[in-house]
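Example 3.2
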Amino acid sequence: MTIHSTRILGDLEFDPVSMAVGGDYIVVGGQRAELAVARLSDPSSSINVARSGGSINNFVALDQQPSASSGAASRRRFRDSAAFVEDGVTNLNIMNSQSAPRLLVCNNDRTVRLLSLPDLTLLTELKFPTAVNYGKQFV
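Structure, written as tokens:
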């Protein structure tokens, strides 16, 4: 038997345009660079609301935390963030070698930002000549 429950996490002060759910977090992006983060496991915790950039947060994604038991992933050594261009496509490596969860935000202000969770501290920012509407995660 599957039991479903509905819980209101809180009222947003903005209209959401993007959302990601993963691990213990739900993140919602807004039309004026707003970001809201809530922990799913603690309904009494407050929702952290901040601004990231100056325009629409088109896409938000939570990265995958590394698992201590994932052999190949834990042996790989990547820098925490790196950008490279291959065949005209810009790739952002956000391989998480840390234990803290992180958030990828694509914004109409022509940036892609990598933020820490739950405090939304800026870790990395990439600037592009045009707005970035979408990012793709490769697991």
